[in-house]
Structure formats: C-alpha cells, structure tokens
C-alpha cells in the first residue's frame, strides 16, 4: 500500500488529505474509490487511518481529508457548517475523478458520526456517489442536539442561540463551546475526557453559529433520492448521542437497495477492537457488492 499527502481546493480553501493506494495495482489500472468523512470535530489522522488501511487492503483507492478549518486544511478555524462540509466532500469526489488510479464511475462515500450523516446526504444530492455507508450518524440535526438535553436544557440552548445570533449581528463576534459541551451526552463527555489526554489536537471551540446550522441540517429530507444507488447504515443500539432510532427513520425513508445494521454497543465503542474491524468488513462487503 502506498500513502501520499495530497491537496485540493474547496471554494476558497486549500484542503489537505491522505491518499491511500492499494497494493498490487497493474500499470494503468483504475480502481473503485472511497471518500472518508470524519465526525463533528474530528481530524483525518484520528480514527480514519484504521478504516482507510482496511479499505485499501480490500483493493480500494481511499481519500481521507480534513474539512475546511480543521487539521491541515485552510479555512475559518473550527467552524462546522454542514452544507459547507458537504461541498468539501463533493469537491473531494471531483478531485478523485481526476486521478489516474481511479475509476470515476465507481466512487463511494463512507462516514462516521457527523460523517455518518454526511454520507447519505451527499449520496442524496450527488449522483456520482454509486454507494454510501454511514455509521453511528443521524438524520435530523435538531434531534441530535435536543434529544441529549432535558426540556429545561433545550429551552436554554434555544435562548443561547438566539442571543448569540443577535450578538453576531450587532458586534460581529459570537461565542463558542467545546465539543463535549455542545454534544453534551454522557458518552461524549467521557470520551473527550480520555481522548484529549492522548490527542490534545482534538481540542476545539466550535462557534454557536455552527450549532444553529446543525439544527437546520436534515439528511432525512434527501435520503429518498439515493435509490437505485445503494445505502448501508450501521448504527449503535446503545448510542446516547446519535440515537439508533434516527438511523431507523433514515432507513425507512430510503429506497432499495438498502440495509440497516444495529450493533450492541455505544457511540464511541465502534472505534475500538473488535468493532473497527467488524464495521469496516461490513462496509467492504457492501462496497464489494455495489461498487466493484
């Protein structure tokens, strides 16, 4: 397997990615390719390399990259605007189409957590995506942020977002919060408490404006456009952040071919043994069926 650091442009920002080429390629051979989409405040050098290597070992060309504002990519720091990230993914597909190692008619997307919402969204709006796999994602951004909060906390969040919008309009400055505060589920708080010790680069302060845009983001509104292209959803049945019910609703709204798998784990367990290998194999089997 060969790996390169690559760059491409998304609107006005230069994005950085890792390009994985499978071993055993013959001269001039073009292979199916997969774009990897990371989570809400993720960066490409955490979690994604495990999946990229497993997909490349299965014979796929793989591109993982940092969304604008994260990791090695340019752009306003730590701003998470769902539709901007969708554009980043679509521009990653365009870059892949231009590569001599890639069969441009066989490009898929795979995403996890927030990327697990982006993968079906991109497939719904971009027919170049021939197969999509989402894991531990969601279909409705408002439910994502509200279901993890009590009724009082929901009202407080709505007041905070309204006040922050007013402040941005009047002063040009808005507030921000760390990911464990914004995505305030017990599993998320526990994960970041440990993860930041090993990977301090995970720290980020996400503008409240991003939360406002997340509340408006609804992959469920476009998932019915994917068929007859293929969609696999892999959810965690004990997920307290991206509730499994959200993926069930996405699945019910989608057309065939489709598949929903529920794993008996929590949101972040999917990134630990043996679930990384198991979930990757589920994705490989799906891509082998619908992308190769």
Structure overview:
With 292 residues, this protein is α/β, with parallel strands linked by helices. It has a single domain (2-149, 217-290), classed as Alpha/Beta hydrolase fold, catalytic domain (Rossmann fold), CATH 3.40.50. 40% of the residues lie in helices and 23% in strands. It has ten helices and ten strands. The protein has helices at 48-57, 82-97, 114-125, 141-146, 151-171, 179-182, 186-198, 208-215, 244-253, 275-290, and strands at residues 2-10, 13-21, 31-37, 61-65, 102-112, 129-135, 176-178, 205-207, 230-236, 258-263. The chain has an eight-stranded mixed sheet, with helices on both faces. Helix 3 (114-125) links the parallel strand 5 (102-112) and strand 6. Helix 1 packs across helix 10 and helix 5 (151-171) crosses helix 8 (208-215). The chain starts with a strand and ends with a helix.
